Amino acid sequence: MQMNKVMKSFIIALPVVTMMACSSGPSEEELAAERNRQAQEQAQAEREAKAAQEARVKAEAAQRMEREEEMAQQELESLKNEQTVYFDFDRSSIKAEFRSLLDKHAKFLVENPDQNVVIEGHTDSRGTPEYNIALGERRGKAVQTYLMNAGVSSGQISVVSYGEEKPAVMGSTEYAMAQNRRGVVVYQ
């Protein structure tokens, strides 16, 4: 009888154990689903890495542009401290000593095509007002021509003549008159 009970238990347990053994491994569908999940996770990680790389590149580009803008602003401030070209009495030709100064302005203007300047022509008080306006115009045009020959666009430059109307130094000494015979590069 005991043997009979063992045998009955064995007969009942055998199919249960067999079913459990067969169902313990993942099915093909489960394996495919797992592979799909892993591929999606990897694709998401790659997208996140690409987005992070793009963000770094954009941040570096923004920093580089900011540095370039700061450098351009510093250069502009430096040029504003050196903006005057002086002329000999009754002359409108650029002196050799001012060519390097105008070359700096030209280089900056070529590198910054959105920047515009007004060339102001001035004279001392000798001569008639009409003559001085014309002389101031010739001086402004001389500076304009020099800059354009150095590559600056004509659209970036305008000329105005003040003649003797806006002296830099008041008085009739030779020093005062020499300071008033000038062309001034004014950034807009």
Task: Please describe what this structure looks like.
This protein has 188 residues and is α+β, with helices and mostly antiparallel strands. The protein is built from 5 helices and 4 strands; from the N terminus they run H-H-E-H-E-H-E-H-E. The chain has helices at 2-23, 28-80, 99-111, 129-149, 174-180, and strands at 84-86, 117-122, 157-163, 182-187. A 4-stranded mixed beta sheet has the order 1-4-2-3. Helix 3 (99-111) packs across helix 4 (129-149). The radius of gyration is 42 Å and the shape is rod-shaped.
**Total beta-strand segments:** 4
Number of helices: 5
Strand order of the largest sheet: 1-4-2-3
Dominant shape: rod-shaped
Major beta-sheet overview: 4 strands, mixed
Helix content: 55-70%
- The chain-level structural class is alpha+beta
SS strand fraction = 5-15%
Question: What's the quick description here?
Answer:
The protein has 188 residues and is α+β, with helices and mostly antiparallel strands.
List keywords for this structure.
signal, 188 residues, 4 strands, membrane
Helices, strands, pairings?
Blueprint: H1 2-23, H2 28-80, E1 84-86, H3 99-111, E2 117-122, H4 129-149, E3 157-163, H5 174-180, E4 182-187
Parallel strand pairs: 2-3
Antiparallel strand pairs: 1-4, 2-4
Helix pairs in contact: 3-4
